């Protein structure tokens, strides 16, 4: 696919100017890396701060007195009691309990919710919301009107506080309207790297000015999707369409933690989301296979799609994400294995080009998360 | 001066005084691949032209290195096992992959010389 048919984010011109290598991703031309290269971009983010253009992701606003109640019917997450100024991780499930997408939901107050969904799912998510929330609240697509920047890394707070001192006191998963360079933005203290940092929703027309201003700070480098992927993998974070999809339930994806207490089988608002019966049954009875972290014991990277076998070379699973972790200094992977192989420290093997690579089932994250919790 | 030849796959071959050919990838290729984090080297032995004998892994992806000409792999660069980044740092010298004894030295004539490779790069950039 040539890049001409692809959509462009408001930062497209800036990416080209910075010498980015652009690749097609979810229908957009996106920077996979800048001249610094994936390895150094990754390490820079962990050491100082990286700026990511994630404007391809879908931003959606729900508005209305019934918005929280209506959205709750689509996700196994407590939205009704989500405090104003807080954000929460959520999953859209289907009738079989499969994951249609994962998303962030923030409570803006004034009966408004702000959603960020995956780029590859955003049209389908919008349709899903409109179908199910019609008549209960307003569903507004912000796809073209807003850009999304992520500023991630240990220096992120110091850098962003230069533009707005109040962001320094925000804690992990807090969300606030913040004026940056005279522009009304939404800022959340969150991200997809395992580091402290922010995601900044900014009107499309002001995105380039804000990005240039952040890049002018000495701590900040532009970071591409290549490093975004290795950073999130080290942090043990799932990538939709790879580590889970519509055929995977939250239990199978080892995302049980994302099901709010209030919505569980013994919760105060138990169930009431698509696929609840199947998900609860899996919680009671267990699952045939589940997602685990995998640490290859040789230097060779084990990539997505590699078959996982036991010592007798019987296929017991598949690698869903894998590669090299620059901060870890070696290969790392996540994959789905039959539940009897999912215990920590179980030894399994990946088939890589006809050879068996030993791997251990390990706890994730691979690199400690460093969120700011106050 | 030793003779240097290039393939359209961005491999270089240098004819050594011993008559063996040292094989690596060009600076253009290493730059396109990005940071190399793992190199899988071939076993010594005979391989046909185009046979995939080595694998380069960058942070993002794996790429195959094929046998530029039919022949025998007589040596591999073990230094790459511990320092795969040599491919990026010194693609034409310390980052070589393996040495081959070609079956037919005349096969070299089909490959590009430096001027030919420079034109190839300019045409395909």
Automatic annotation (TrEMBL), chain A:
InterPro entries for the chain: GcvT, GcvT/YgfZ/DmdA, GcvT/YgfZ_C, GcvT_C, GCVT_N, TrmE/GcvT-like
Signal peptide: none
Alphabetically ordered keywords of this record: Aminotransferase, Methyltransferase, Transferase
UniProt record, GO biological process: glycine catabolic process; methylation
GCVT N-terminal domain mapped to chain residues: 11-261
Record's catalysed reaction(s): N(6)-[(R)-S(8)-aminomethyldihydrolipoyl]-L-lysyl-[protein] + (6S)-5,6,7,8-tetrahydrofolate = N(6)-[(R)-dihydrolipoyl]-L-lysyl-[protein] + (6R)-5,10-methylene-5,6,7,8-tetrahydrofolate + NH4(+)
Name of the protein in question: aminomethyltransferase
Species name: Pseudomonas alkylphenolica
UniProtKB/TrEMBL annotation, chain B:
UniProt keyword Repressor, yes or no: no
Record-annotated Lipoyl-binding domain positions: 20-101
Cofactor(s) the protein needs: (R)-lipoate
Cofactor binding note of this UniProt entry: Binds 1 lipoyl cofactor covalently.
GO biological process: glycine decarboxylation via glycine cleavage system; protein lipoylation
Keywords: Lipoyl
Family classification: Belongs to the GcvH family.
Name of the protein in question: Glycine cleavage system H protein
Organism taxonomic ancestry: Bacteria, Pseudomonadati, Pseudomonadota, Gammaproteobacteria, Pseudomonadales
């Amino acid at each position: 696919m040539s890049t001409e048919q692809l959509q462009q984010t408001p930062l497209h011109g800036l990416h080209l100017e910075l010498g980015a290598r652009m690749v097609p991703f979810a229908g957009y031309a996106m920077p996979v890396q800048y001249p610094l290269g994936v390895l150094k971009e990754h390490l820079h983010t962990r050491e100082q701060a990286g700026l990511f253009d994630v404007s391809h992701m879908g931003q959606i606003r729900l508005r209305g007195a019934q918005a929280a109640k209506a959205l709750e019917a689509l996700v196994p997450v407590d939205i009704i009691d989500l405090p104003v100024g807080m954000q929460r991780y959520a999953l859209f499930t289907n009738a079989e309990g499969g994951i249609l997408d994962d998303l962030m939901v923030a409570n803006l107050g004034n009966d408004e919710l702000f959603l960020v969904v995956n780029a590859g799912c955003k049209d389908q998510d919008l349709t899903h919301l409109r179908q199910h929330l019609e008549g209960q609240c307003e569903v507004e697509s912000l796809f073209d009107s807003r850009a999304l920047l992520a500023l991630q890394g240990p220096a992120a707070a110091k850098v962003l506080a230069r533009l707005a001192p109040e962001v320094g006191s925000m804690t992990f998963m807090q969300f606030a309207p913040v004026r940056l360079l005279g522009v009304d933005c939404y800022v959340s203290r969150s991200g997809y790297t395992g580091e402290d940092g922010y995601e900044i929703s900014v009107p499309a027309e002001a995105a380039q000015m804000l990005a240039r201003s952040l890049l002018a700070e000495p701590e900040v480098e532009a970071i591409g999707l290549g490093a975004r992927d290795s950073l999130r993998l080290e942090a043990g974070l799932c990538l939709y369409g790879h580590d889970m999809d519509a055929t995977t339930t939250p239990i199978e994806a080892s995302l049980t933690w994302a099901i709010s207490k209030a919505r569980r089988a013994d919760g105060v608002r138990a169930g009431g989301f698509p696929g609840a019966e199947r998900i609860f049954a899996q919680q009671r009875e267990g699952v045939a296979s589940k997602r685990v972290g995998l640490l290859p014991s040789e230097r060779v990277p084990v990539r997505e799609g590699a078959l996982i076998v036991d010592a007798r070379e019987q296929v017991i699973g598949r690698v869903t994400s894998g590669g090299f972790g620059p901060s870890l200094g070696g290969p790392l992977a996540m994959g789905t294995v039959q539940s009897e192989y999912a215990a920590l420290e179980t030894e399994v093997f990946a088939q890589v080009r006809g050879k068996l690579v030993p791997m251990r089932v390990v706890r994730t994250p691979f690199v400690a998360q460093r969120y700011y919790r106050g | 001066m030793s003779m240097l030849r290039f393939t359209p796959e961005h491999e270089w071959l240098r004819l050594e005084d011993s008559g063996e050919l040292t094989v690596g990838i060009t600076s253009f290729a290493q730059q396109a691949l990005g940071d190399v984090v793992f190199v899988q080297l071939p076993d010594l032995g005979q391989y046909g032209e185009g046979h995939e004998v080595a694998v380069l892994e960058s942070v993002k992806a794996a790429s195959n290195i094929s046998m530029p000409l039919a022949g025998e792999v007589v040596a591999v660069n073990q230094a790459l096992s511990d320092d795969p980044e040599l491919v990026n740092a010194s693609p034409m010298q310390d980052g070589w992959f393996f040495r081959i004894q070609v079956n037919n030295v005349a096969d070299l004539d089909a490959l590009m010389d430096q001027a030919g490779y420079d034109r190839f790069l300019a045409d395909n950039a």
